Amino acid sequence: MIFDTVIIGGGLAGMVCGIRLAEAGKRCAIVSQGQSAIHFSSGSFELLGRLPDGTAVSDPVEAMDRLREISPEHPYSVLGRQRCEQYAMQVPDLLRAADIPVSGDCRKNHFRITPMGKATPAWLTIRGYLTTEEPEQLPFGKACIINVDGFLDFYPEFIAEEFARHGVACSFGSVNLPDLEKIRKNPSEMRSTNIARVFDHEENLEVLAAKIRECRKECDALILPAIIGLNRNDSLEILKSKVDIPIYLLPTLPPSIPGIKAQQALQHRFRSLGGEYFLGDTVVSANMENGSVKEIFTVNHGNIPFRADNFVLATGSFFSKGLVATPDAIREPVFDADTVFVPERKNWYSMRFFDRHNYQSFGVRTDTELHVVKGDKAIGNLYCIGAGLAGFNPVHDGCGAGVSILSAMYVADRILKGE
Q1: Phi and psi dihedrals of 361, rounded to 5?
Q2: What does the pLDDT look like over 88-106, one tens digit per residue?
Q3: Cα angle vertex 98, ends 282, 111, to 5°?
Q4: Domain 2-98+260-416 has CATH 3.50.50.60
């Protein structure tokens, strides 16, 4: 099979890179072994929430100058502020074209509300999810937090306790209906995805609307867990049309409805542009010639190779096995590329869970144009994007989605320019 570009990995970075190339008319394939981290996302995309020294960031673009001084190896520092801003300005349109309606500004972080009620910096947030412009101020004074009976991945009491810190008084409501009893028989089946399938049916959505109308007395807003709209896009609008006060969604603990929907939307966009998506397949080997990748082989296709002019490594970090830890080293399993890590294992992590852990910034070694380096030599037609890159801490710095998206756009443009 012959393509212009083969992308290994179907997460956020791989999908954005594939879409960008497919929009330009390139024949692309994505090989994805399964679920990616986007399935667990919160409905928001972060650009830069904190600098490595812990300084809070209000304007992510402006903060990139300081970031380059502190962390010259960070992917944003490698790309440069001007290029990062250019790409960041284009991202909302790219996502909206994939039917992911987002709002936000790369020059000013807003704050999304987490499943535990905390406010955390965000760049873009999918429409319908609760956000605020200031972390200490919510857009209502009284709220009713509604949950489905028996749903354990949503915590109204914790949320109410956090809201109370901001002067919001909370009451509680609950929802039940016969179709939910079928999945309640097994507690492990009471997950957001299964509940959302129940509310995909028109009659159950009508019952939900009636139930939440009963809870709207003496409150300014209704708070619902993200348990609607898995296979339809109008669920929230239907509810809003039947209730006369604002309704906001909060993400739940994984599995994540907004994350799954975003993945599905990006995949549909890629395929609609002519891209070929190979789900449930794993790359096992590659042939190289004269310092370039010529072809790769996968489990499902056996001795049938994927050939391309360019290859993009978007396999992610440890979560998706894009990086593998051995007792004394960090490996990249597809190409055995050079990696960046701290030599002594005892320095990989801290005994304090919420500390900044060194291992989170380990990754594939690249040159300044994001070519993968192997044996201290850059491979001219192999790039690395996303979470597998070295030099940044996505959790501490709040930049995981931004690095994935911007590095993907940069590499796509490099390929399109033929460099």
Answers
A1: -105, 5
A2: 999 999 999 999 999 999 9
A3: 100
A4: yes
